[in-house]
User: What shape does this take?
Amino acid sequence: MGWFTDWLLGGVEQRSIEDPKYSLSESPEELLRLLGIADAQNALPIVSIEAALGVPAVFSIVAFLSRTLAALPLPTFEAGENGARVDDSVAQLLSYAPNDGETSYGWRRWHWQQVFTGGRGLAWIERVGRRPVAIWPMDPALTTIRRVNGERIYTHNGRDYRAGDVIDTPFMLKRDGLASYSPIAKINKAISLAIAMESFAGGFFLGGGVPPLALEGPLPSGADAYRRAQNDIQRAIDLAKKSNSNIFGMPPGHNLKPVGIDPSKGQMVEARAFQIIEISRGWQMPPVFVQDLSKGTFSNTEQQDLWLAKHLIMQWAKAFEDELTLKLYGWQNPTRRVRHNLDGLQRGAFKERSEALARAIQTGQLTPNEARALEQRAPMDGGDQLYVQQATVPLVMAGASIDHNGAPSIDDNEEDAADASTQD
Assistant: This one.
């Protein structure tokens, strides 16, 4: 027991119902250990990937990002900004099936799940000669990476693979350029705190929502009499719970008061809501995409949608595109490139999208067929020409253009001269 209790009792030895490992009167850190929030070293426990995925915010982020990136179209183009789309063997692997056992979507979703949990996604490229014929996933947990004569070597199931034959997508490389940081490991404390608060809040419902109570009033003398009175009160509470009644009888002169934290505060609603934002920062995820609309408005949720596409999805898509182009087409002036199609992800509402396409056609930026292709519609005859509004002319030529467009002349002097010659 603590010094305050010793002073109050005048040094008389007393027995305590406290667990000897945890003394409520010593320090706040020991209270945290009693509540299960900290370990014996007053540190939050390190969580595994499986435990972290038990936190709804973490599970939502990993599932959302992996599915979104896997669902993006991944075509192959000729090198250059305006390169034509090609349908070669690599495009078949990336767009349809990387091997005979899984789809492109399934492989890419698993790949991104490893990136956003353990911090790295790996896949081996099977070749015939120099031509890729299949892509096989590699478990990062069973793979070690080392550097031999400056080249990275990947060892998986006892077999070595060259870096040129391994698709490697790290979350963030460490200083040695080999190991990668895991987002779950780096924000371990935030996730541990979320788990601890959820477990602690759930404890309020273990007794049917009844918090710890203290019985006040004239207490019976003797340990047996006190135990019988306590059992009677407990039976009254249990009977009230079973009968769905909020009223139960109490002995005259006695009163029950809750001990400790108020139940409404004990669920830590505000603190747990803040942990959602804190966890989202580990993946740079806008809060609206983990269903946190506490501060959402119509305008800022729309901006978060744009932020997601520009500053999160686009960056990861670029990293994956460069890795695939390097490993599948080579590093010396590849004639073809892999590029995600982000147009569908950046679509707005139908009205704004239609107005934007119409404006692009009218100003000669897109042909009608190019605009139809963005909407995944078939081309139409005569839709490959550029159009521009004829009335758009330089300001200095505004009058001249009207004179020569087939309309009557607006020169008043010329009309007066014509009338005078007619009268003569």
User: Anything to note?
Assistant: Residues 1-29 have pLDDT under 50 and may be disordered.
